[in-house]
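Much of what follows relies on a compact textual record of a protein's fold. The record below shows the convention in full:
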Amino acid sequence: MDKKLRRKVLSASLIGSSIEWFDFFLYAAVASIIFNTQFFVTDDAFLSNILAYFGLALSFFIRPLGGVIFAHIGDRVGRKKTLIITLSLMGLATAGIGLLPTYAQIGVAAPLLLLLFRLIQGLGIGGEWGGALLLATEYAPKNQRGLFGSFPQMGIPIGLVLAYGFFFLLTWAMPEEMFLSWGWRIPFIFSLLLVIVGLLIRKGLDETPAFIAMQKEAEAKNEVRRLPIVEIFKKHPKEVLITSGAKFVETGPFYIFTTFIVGYGVSNLDVSFEFMMLSIMAVSVLTTIMIPIMGSLSDKVGRKKMFLIGAVAMLIYAFPYFIIVNTHEPVLVILATFIGLVVVWPPITAILGTMFSESFSKEVRYTGVTLGYQIGAAVAGGSAPLIAEFLMNQFNGSSIPVSLYIVLTAVVSLIAVLAMRGENAQDKEDRLMNAE
């Protein structure tokens, strides 16, 4: 691959992914300070928080459905066309949230419409990730799949930095009353501009070599391809279960470290919202740098070994994390976040996508990676802040149950990845290609 095409592929994958996650994290950033008081209005602050976090979790629950719909399109029509649809869908839903009237203005219709837009966001992100991943890995040289596959994962911390950074600047630049009244809406509406940029970049890219080869093979054999969702459970049922389980440790702890901790820090650790935003942003910049380093390293030491190291580290860190943040010392809160997001999490997330894509044959790869990723995310991702909030309330503010939850996600993922044995689908395709 020449350098120009390499830059084009990686930038299209990274920028599109970053925009999608920017849209997604906007809700997470203000769930516990805006949506709980202006949309999910109740007489019980705990219930309002739970409902706001449910709005976060809801989009995760719908993501597998979005994954099935758009992965079917991606495996039948093409990766590029699907990514244009998902990016557009995400941007329109995000702008819609920014324009929504509050509960005080239209009553119960406000939270219902907010949840509807979250469902649309969930459908969009459900199909986006698999396409962005395959855009990178199916163009990648064999010995650089780990590096290429890490680029869509960089979109996660980049999107988080953009979302949290936008809100941090707004809270710094305008009075609190103004921010709470209408200032929080600006990033949601601004998303439309980013979406236009992403669409222009993706429009100029061709379909992936693997998809083009798959089309030619089908035409040469005059094959009528079956539904990818049917084929995936016929040929790769074990891989779907394994990848779903592997996702647990990557997603559950991440939302504890970046979303739950914001509300927890403000209400329990005596630190400001602005401080939590700034500390998570600063750490996430370093996370972004670490992800491609870990991805490239996996091309040398192996995907499975890297993942197991990260999962064990997460298991060990579950209790020390809360021990450190519960000191109430701002510097130590930053240190705890740094260890979690820069040291422990990158070896897991950097190779997750490549490991998933190598598990499925190219005919159903979009569907396979999407199902595994989104099912795992639905079970252990968006529900993590909700579960943590519930556990804290049930156990009188104790963080021990939340640490046990992190341990559980690590154990599930360790069992799943240890079950990966033998030659994966990508290795088999490479071997057959070399034989020809």
